[in-house]
Write a structure and sequence with these properties.
With 283 residues, this protein is mainly α. It has two domains: 201 residues, Orthogonal Bundle (Lysozyme), CATH 1.10.530.10; 70 residues, no CATH class. 64% of the residues lie in helices and 3% in strands. The chain contains 16 helices and two strands. It has a two-stranded antiparallel ribbon. Helix 1 packs across helix 6, helix 7 packs antiparallel against helix 11 and helix 12 crosses helix 16. The two termini are 15 Å apart.
Length: 283
């Protein structure tokens, strides 16, 4: 296994742990990290202060750490961040840099991204009156919560209007998002659709569910374990089809919590699913 694949495995394991702790779907968090940084924990934006696996800008990072850091062992960081008239600051320069550097820690970044998504999910659903999709959550990460509400509201009423005209500042910093290669401005529906496609499976499911199990099982086949996991002469495709069908059988409960409880019952199927997930994390 190469250094790159080991690093990617550690990043994905950090994302899986954050998903488990917060209830935000693994496939959404993974898709977001791929889209933001290509799963590179030390990625740095050229046009803003964005950094890390989820490309948090400094202001957004300080905000989410202040709100949720203590819940995840980062009380020292949360306590060091003060708010004055809505402006967040850290009095000690060295401490400030240490807090910002956490954006490059896959575990901290994944946890804060998941908490940020959970907060945005509640706020968006209250505004939209429907379940927020992964793409909705990504819009909140990309444009901020207020920008996402504005974008999604306009998308519903006038999907064909120019996204750049509605968000000129964001378009200036992200020209490839808001304009096609021929220079034509993309519509709101075009921008939304492109993000949905890039997020992949996570775009449709943002909440607690069985996406984590499916995604983790799928990852195992990228780590050289397919012979062990599939067994016999079963193909990778057949094994994944079995996993999807097995998970589907557990989704007959009325609530996500009951579905999760079914998945935890000791049966041959759940044992095999657990093995596939552990193998994908190097267990």
């Amino acid at each position: 296994m190469t250094v790159s694949s080991i690093t990617t495995s550690r990043v994905q394991s950090a994302i899986a742990a954050a998903s488990s702790k917060t209830g935000i779907d693994f496939s959404y968090l993974l898709g977001q990290a791929k889209l933001e940084s290509g799963l590179q924990a030390n990625a740095k934006a050229a046009t803003s202060s964005a950094s890390g696996l989820y490309q948090f800008i400094e202001r957004s990072w300080l905000s989410v750490v202040k709100q949720h850091g203590a819940e995840h062992g980062l009380g020292w960081a949360a306590n060091a961040i003060t708010s004055t008239n809505g402006r967040l600051s850290v009095s000690d320069p060295a401490t400030r840099q240490a807090i910002l550097a956490l954006r490059n820690d896959p575990n901290a970044a994944s946890l804060m991204a998941a908490e940020h998504a959970a907060d945005n999910k509640v706020a968006l659903e209250n505004t939209l009156g429907r379940t927020a999709t992964g793409t909705d959550l990504y819009m909140a990460h990309f444009l901020g919560l207020g920008g996402a509400k504005k974008f999604l509201g306009a998308l519903q009423s006038s999907p064909g209007q120019s996204a750049a005209a509605l968000f000129p500042a964001a378009a200036g910093a992200n020209r490839n998002v808001f304009y096609a290669s021929n220079g034509q401005p993309r519509s709101l529906s075009d921008v939304y659709g492109r993000f949905a496609a890039k997020l992949g499976a996570g775009a449709a499911d943002s909440g607690t569910g069985t996406g984590t199990a499916t995604a983790l099982a799928a990852r195992s086949f990228d780590m050289g374990n397919s012979t062990v996991i599939t067994g016999g002469n079963e193909s990778t495709q057949d094994a994944m089809a079995w996993a999807s069908a097995a998970i589907g059988r557990f989704k007959t409960s009325a609530t996500p919590q009951q579905t999760a409880a079914n998945l935890m019952r000791p049966t041959p199927d759940t044992a095999r699913l657990a093995y596939m997930m552990l193998a994908s994390m190097g267990g």
